[in-house]
Amino acid sequence: MNMQEIADTCEKKFLEKIEEKMGDSSIVPLPLIKRYCRMLTIYCESEGKVTESFIKSMEKCISEIKSIEGMDEIFDECNQCPEE
Questions:
Q1: What percent of the chain clears pLDDT 70, i.e. is strictly above it?
Q2: Helix, strand, or coil here: 52?
Q3: Which one, of 79, 84, 81, lies nearest residue 17 by Cα?
């Protein structure tokens, strides 16, 4: 899989979990999920070898996602590097 396919799979997983647990995926801004999945894909592909500013951007994105009610548990379930 290429990086775009991996990010798309991540996004799909997030949206499915949101639907399953919250019933409505529209409460979470899709661009936020897309951005985080792209960042997670880059982080995983580089085996964590990213810059400090990249980490800070990821952390900001994480806090934005987790600030949405009910997203803590979903985030923890979806925040994993894809298996090869």
A1: 98
A2: helix
A3: 79
